[in-house]
Design goal:
The chain is built from 11 helices and 5 strands, in the order αβααβαααβαααβαβα. With 162 residues, the protein is of the alpha/beta class.
Length: 162
């Protein structure tokens, strides 16, 4: 492997693990049912892919800790611990990095709240050959159009089938 950070090293990185962008509903599902199907899929993917989320999403989830704790009937401290465990394998990208891509990303979503996930996927294509958005709400994304960009949108069940 060539050292020195040049184009050759970037090429080698793109041939390894895929990048998976986690939609909000995936993270919330994992928090509500830490032993549930979605969380088990994330645990399986941790070794096979690099997991990502926009940092702003994680900050928003941190603010909703008490709400999620009430929903699960656990203490806010326990919910924060679960969030920390879940996020330990998730890499975050600053909003400033993906902000210039939001406008373009809007063309690939039906719900504007999902544009940051597409923007992050586009951003990750600079380093990764395979980029996947993992969501339970695939209808929020224009899947066919995203496939033209070589970005795939899958549910946890679909990604397991691969």
């Amino acid at each position: 492997m060539a050292r020195g950070g040049g184009e050759e090293e970037a090429k080698e990185r793109t041939t390894r693990k895929p990048a998976i962008v986690l939609d909000t509903n995936i993270i919330i599902s994992s928090l509500i049912k830490p032993g549930g199907f979605t969380r088990r899929v994330i645990l399986l993917l941790e070794d096979q892919a690099d997991l990502y989320a926009p940092k702003a999403l994680l900050e928003e989830l941190t603010k909703k800790t008490e709400y999620l704790a009430r929903k699960k009937r656990v203490s806010p401290a326990e919910q924060r611990h679960l969030l920390t465990l879940l996020l330990s394998s998730v890499r975050t990208i600053e909003s400033d990095a993906i902000k210039p891509l939001i406008k373009a990303a809007m063309e690939y979503v039906r719900d504007p709240d999902d544009a940051p996930f597409v923007a992050l996927a586009i951003y990750l294509q600079r380093v990764y050959e395979d980029v996947i958005i993992l969501t339970w709400n695939t209808s929020d994304y224009k899947r066919e159009d995203l496939e033209m960009l070589k970005i795939k949108v899958f549910t946890p069940r679909e990604v397991l089938a691969l």
